[in-house]
Design a protein that fits this description.
By secondary structure, the protein is mostly beta strands. The chain is built from two helices and eight strands, in the order αβαβββββββ. It is about 15% helix and about 45% strand. Strands 1-2-3-4-5-6-7-8 form an eight-stranded antiparallel β-barrel. A hairpin with a 2-residue loop joins strand 3 and strand 4. The N terminus is likely disordered.
Length: about 150
């Protein structure tokens, strides 16, 4: 019985409305991503990100030289998940077939947030996704978090 109570408590915390508030993403963000694979990171170097999120939580921007298209934002428990299609190549020497971007926002603060990124060739499955972490900084810092 004690185990069932603990399981229900943990499930409730995971499903609770707390966590990352999507409205905190409103604004223009710049970031630099690093690949998790050390060899890939050394070969390609940092990946520049630029995101613009409007009040309706619609987004656009770039990942390297690729443009972000078909943006989808959803809240999953305590995190935000952003899915988008990429138009073009991230870098000229990057494979062209990598055209799906996934960002998982875990720690959103007033002027900074961190996310894990994944670039795949297929929305559902890619046997060799390119993964890493990116730290975003708001381009125009907010002194008052209530006014994006």
């Amino acid at each position: 019985m004690k185990g069932l109570f603990l399981t229900c408590l943990i499930w409730g915390l995971i499903q609770s409305p707390g966590g990352v508030d999507p409205k905190g993403l409103v604004g223009t963000w710049q970031g630099e991503g690093r690949y998790a694979d050390g060899e890939l990171d050394r070969a390609r170097g940092p990946v520049p990100f630029l995101l613009r999120v409007d009040a309706a939580l619609q987004g656009e921007g770039t990942v390297g030289e690729a443009r972000i298209r078909d943006w989808r934002l959803e809240r999953r428990g305590q995190i935000l998940r952003i899915e988008a299609r990429l138009e073009g190549r991230i870098r000229m020497d990057a494979p062209f077939e990598k055209d799906h971007l996934f960002l998982q926002v875990e720690d959103l603060r007033t002027n900074r947030f961190m996310a894990e990124f994944q670039v795949r060739s297929d929305e559902a499955f890619d046997p060799s996704p390119e993964e890493g972490r990116v730290t975003f900084t708001r381009i125009r810092p907010l002194s008052d978090p209530a006014k994006p």
